[in-house]
Amino acid sequence: MRGRVHRKIGIAGAALCPRYEWLLWEDCPDVAVMRGYIAVLISAMVMMFTASCSLAPRDSDNVKGLEEVRFSPASIKQGVWSPDEFERAERGGIFFLDAPVARRTAVLFIHGINGSPLDFKFLIAHLDRSRFQPCVFFYASGASLSQSGRDLAVAIGEVHSRYDVESLVIVAHSIGGLIARDVVLNQSAHAGVDIPVLITMSSPWGGVPSAGLGVRLSPVVIDSWRDIAVGSPYLSSLFARQLPAATRHYLLFSYRKSWSSFGLSGDAVTSVASQLERTAQEQAYRVYGFDVSHSEILRSRSVADVLDEALRSTLLARTEVAP
Q: What's the predicted TM-score (pTM) here?
């Protein structure tokens, strides 16, 4: 009986971390169960963060231009667990939902870990597409965030040269906010493209404790875990400099707890303390809190209203300074 239990735990670990070569033999039950327990524990904690960042699309969220096939669950999973294969398949990049219009302000949506552009269906559906052109960035969320930032900067440069896009508003969820801030800080990486507004939602500016635990104990370590671990060099680099004065950062955080919050103030995935990291607050233009969960913030009408207000003020400011 004990051997069968050990084997089942080992198999569970293999299912959660499919890229790892697990020992499941009957003559090594202790090793198998140890690795199985580690995988189940780490995956339960970290995947609670990753799985909760994605939303299942609803029929009522049908938005013209979002390709269901390209952003399939299989592609998302590959991007988390096999980012190199994701890149070789050339699945990532910036995609416009309509034919780009030169010099019209684009609104770029960046998803979180284990997510995809489909997560933004609700917000895109409430976007004034007569004045703003939505586009999405799809990337391997298991890759290092610095690499994703470099890939995004290259993609923005291509959009600028190919479609003459000169202004870009960024709307990002969860770790997508970290990538977005990284790109905004490196102005030379997007020369020629103005980023007047950065809107981030439920981003873990102070890190995710379970990611650090995963880095230390998990048999398989996803590169993005290293970056979002509390105190990581990547997180420190995001606040080594202030955001450009020309970029207004709207910091949106969520705080609806669930039974899994274990007493911490958070949104069932990311703690409020992490979302409201002091320096991030100090450098923000506006800070808004919403009584929703980590994923529900993507379907909040109040959030859509804040997005609309930020875009309207941006358009007004550009009109006032135009010759």
A: 0.82
